[in-house]
Amino acid sequence: MDSIDVSIIIVYVILTLAIGIWVSKRASKGLDSYFLGGKTIKWYYLGLSNGSGMFDVSGTAWMVGILFLYGVKSFMFMWLWPIWNQIFIMMFLAVWIRRSNIMTGSEWILTRFGDAKDGRASHIIVAVFAIVAAIGFIAYFFEGVGKFMTIILPWDLALEFNNMHVLTSEQSYALIIIFLTTVYTVKGGMFSVVATEVLQYAIMVIAGLLVAVYAFVTVSDIEIANVISEEWKNVFFDWELGKHWSEKYLAFDNLINAEGFKMFGAFIGMSLFKGFFGSIAGPTPSFDLQRILSTKTVKEAAYMSGFTNLILFIPRYLLISGIVVIALVTLSPEMNSNPLLNGNDLEILLPKVINFHIPVGIKGLLLAGLLAAFMSTFSAFVNAGPAYIVNDIYKKYFKPQAENKHYIKVSHLASFIIVALGVFMGFLADSINSLTLWITSALFGGYVAANFLKWIWWRFNGWGYFWGMLSGLIVATLQFVLDQNKGDFEEGSILYDLCNVHAIYLFPIIFSVSLIGSFLGTFLTQPTSMEVLKSFYKDVRPWGWWHPVFKELKNEDKTFTKNKGFALDMLNCAVGIIWQSSMIVLPIYFMIRDYPKTLIALAVFIITSVILKFTWLDKVKKLQN
Fold first, then answer.
1. CA 332 to CA 324: how far, in whole Å?
2. 440 and 503 in contact (C-beta within 8 Å)?
3. Residue 86, H or E segment
4. Rounded to the nearest 10 degrees, what angle do helices 287-294 and 362-389 cross at?
5. Which of 246, 220, 219 is nearest to 231 (CA)?
6. 593, pLDDT greater than 90
7. What are the φ/ψ torsions at residue 564 (nearest 5 degrees)?
């Protein structure tokens, strides 16, 4: 690396630490200040922070790989998360969640099920889920940033003791970056996280634009056309993927067949099935939920969620598309000639392009931007996860009365424990892809059923929630253990076959087990107190099967009305998914110089934006807290 690039990175790290520590005094006022910024932060700063938190290195490396291999339709792989849960949040869930006026997702559960035994059981299980999810994401980041930094930076930091291998260079780099990020996050809480993430977002956008401009200027239309096929540029698909690459790039078609997504129609169908239920279930108890709860008002919660969608995808995909265009032209011939080409080669495309094909200055800023992407996402989870340990377990069940300083100190300790456990899990994982599939398909699969039912069905109670979540978590954990030990099972055995099924196709099994647990727990126990249900329904006002509760409230207040917005909310979600998709394919088509499709994507974006102005934004403006 050139000294200019190293200097840019050092200045960025020092600036981030300085800002994070400088604003940390504001976090010492109490848990509300530490975890939610005292609900005083402006919604657009929270939106920038939320968008920055979703702009991570591991995810970016993964997206570069799938766009390179599958072409434009690869954006549908993002439905694994599913990314359009942000659309459901924007359209109605942010409003429902913010009306609760509490600190964490598990504390919110008490407003739904009450504070009796069943409510406390559901409260504990969602806190456990939040902690497990935070640990899983930290492991995911640990795996990604280590690979990235090792290929980029020139120093070998492998550690040996008495000729015994202690740490690889990847692990050493990951530990250093994680330590630096943890320091300012733990010190400053939500104020530090938001302040540094706004800075990091600006750096990421500038870096993405510079890479896009560089790729556009240095790579010609003819060079791109010589590599990609018409099918690569086609956003539509049949039940089975056809040939994506030309005859001279057969190795990439063979890799598509080996990846297990040849039956693309089945994969998309499963993603849609999972995505719908997963999106209505609401955000998992992590950083985006904390951002919603941190807004000043219900109206600002909706604005913040919409703003997050608007500012995230175009700059992120300009960066991804720029990297992929350079990779297509410079790395395709070498990769195509490799007979052992596999999915792991795609994970290192991003650092390879940066290392060998990005000029001095832009490289340093891009590295600072990607480091910012890692630090912002990581810090968001380090802020969100401990809130559940401190507020929902320690304060509620062990020490309900203590000074704010005491809780802040416990929060610091909880942060370090979660980071340590996440790093330990990262040592056990074998790739970014395995962690991605586990988190998106198995872990979230166990979350979906119970959290879907909690919104729409009055009879669903705390025990149903507890057993639904617990059964889902157990199956998800078993799936991860099996996946990490697949080499230990005999070929042809049931366990071997289960290990080699893609996690997305296991989602119906995990969902079904969780659904059975939810129904059994509900019907074998007493309903939630009508007083609790009335309080929840009156405050949150969801749509769904709430007639007995509505009837009770109607008897008390003749003016009380139902939420009849289901049809409009679902219409807005459908339009919103198209709107979001247009923001992804627009920069891709622009960067590969397919200008007719660029204009179509732009037209779709404008039309859907106008529709949402009338069907969503005007409705939000009329909201009352």
1. 10
2. yes
3. helix 85-88
4. 80
5. 246
6. yes
7. -105, 25
- What DSSP string describes 169-237? HHHHHHHHHHHHHHHHHHHHHHHHHHHHHHHHHHHHHHHHHHHHHHHHHHS-HHHHHTT--HHHH----
Q: Which residues contact 545 (CB under 8 A, 6 or more apart)?
A: 456, 457, 458, 459
- Helix (H) / strand (E) containing 142: helix 117-152
Q: Which helix (H) or strand (E) holds 603?
A: helix 595-612
Return the sign of the alpha-carbon dihedral for residues 434, 437, 439, 442: negative
Long-range contact set of residues 157-162: C-beta below 8 Å, sequence gap at least 24 = none
Pairwise CA distance, residues 107 & 101, whole Å: 10
Give the other-Cβ count within 10 Å of 538's Cβ. 15
Least confident of 15-29, 189-203, 229-243, 569-583: 15-29
For residue range 465-524, list pLDDT tens digits in order.
999 988 887 887 777 677 666 667 777 777 777 776 666 677 788 888 889 999 999 999
What average pLDDT score do residues 3-16 get?
Answer: 82
Burial status of residue 386 (CB atoms within 10 A of its CB: 0-12, 13-18, 19 or more): buried
CA distance 592 to 332: 15
| pTM score | 0.83
- Tell which residue, 605, 89, 82, has the closest CA to residue 303: 89
